[in-house]
Specification:
Length: 580
Amino acid sequence: MSIPGELERARHLALAADETSAKELLLSLMPRIEEADRDDLMLEVLAQLDELYLVRTAYEGVREGIRRIRECLAVYASVLDGTAAPDVIDRTTMSTDAILHMTCRYGRRAQALEVGLLAALGDHEGAAAALVLLDGMASGEWSAPQFADLASEHAYLGTLARIQCAAALCEDDMHVKSIPLWRSVIEDVDTGSTGEDDDNLFVLGAVGYARFCIETGRLAEAEPWLQRAGARAQARGWDLPVSRTKLERATVCWARGDQLSTERLLMEAYPVIAEYARAHDVSRCWLYFGLTRMGAGALQAADESWEHAERHWRELGRPLHIHRILLQRSWIAIIRGRFQDAIDMVERARACLDESPRSSWVAYARLDDHLGTVWRSDALADLGFDGAGHADDDWAELEARYRASLGATHAEPGSPRFASAMDKLARAADLKVPAALAVDSVRYSITDAEARAQWAECISAPMLAGAFAVAWESENTELVGELIEYHSARGTFATAEAPGDVDWSRVTTAPAPISDLEELAQVASGPRIDTGPSLTRLGPLPPLAMDPTAGPVLGRYRRLALERYGQHVTTDESAWTTWP
């Protein structure tokens, strides 16, 4: 087969996710291309290899490939402007038009690779700037009539780069900033075209957008995209994309509480995902395997599953995912009664957040809430909770106790163990209550009622429920009353929308922490707006006073929320009195 034919075959292999065969074929072509002295074909080999390296996270290889492409193009640019050495000009056999065409094509390819590399490395600002430059390559000298044959390839590169940027933003919980990109992607891929490149873009875009929808609570919107992506991939015989759609469908089933369907889809997807060695997707499979096994009471199997997930994410060096799996694994330590091990895992998770430049105050608040859960669990063990494990239990004893637990406690008030439990519950309250108040304050910035309800259900409600639980279990009636007063007030009505509310409201439905919530919380913590008679939006509460002889409710916990997370839970208005 001719060299161009072999290059086309390598591209087919890459689209089918057979990167190993594609790489071997491309490397085998290099000696032939060097012998033929065809720089244009060598640039094609480098571009395809870089695409493979990017998929397989071999980022140093991508950097080297981009450098070599640009160095080669720079030599030809010097030939065109006459600044090259005479011997270089003498050896050049390509026409001016051919050089311009090659420079245009592979300049764009190198720029698209740079966008993908920067996005994969988490340099989202750099990726956005590089994407602007890529888009600009469709204008000026690049759009001359003789380059019209490259228009479709440039459109392909632009859409692919947007998919990569949007997916990378979601990986770092920056769902808000990915929305404009996803809007562009779904418009570009849903054109009805059925070429191989078109199908590849559609599958990548549809799966990525569906995952975004799942992570932001739009389950019904995700399913049609997954079905269509799976059908296209199946028609092409692309096994890996088919399995990736099954993995995302499994996450939908888990979100809906359908454990059996989750397990079935995972069992169908995992063998192919493991065969193609996609470490991130392999880790996600193990995460959900662990969840389904824990739901069935198989604690040892769940712990082993999460251990596999953690190992793969550590190999990839993804601190946000490592921190989440550490928190997940700490549940096993809690159930086993090994509370110090659980605390150690939480602190290691905190170190991962510290390491990540994309960590948010919301992530730290949820981490503190979980640490409070560890202390609460330790306190319940002191109270004789019948589901608490013993550190020396084997797995069979632990799982039997876990399944048989009725949730009962038995401890004599006034006993040493009771006193120890009260101390631990107080410590848990100091962690859980400020975190819950800070996160709940965000809902006042959400103008859309459905999105506000989703935020409350996925984020605020579980954390507030935990705060109520530790207050009740610690027999702190004053704190229970103040939480009831705070929760009953619900909020105020403001008469105008705060700047920036409308564009940000719908994205707050995400069940994962979002780093952009600092901007939402700034609106939530500001003073109530009063510019007219109509009541148009929910607003934050002023301080509440329920006792004429005491200060506002939850004052100490509100100060802790401000100190730890920078969140003003109430406005700076005068306190409202809650008595007649």
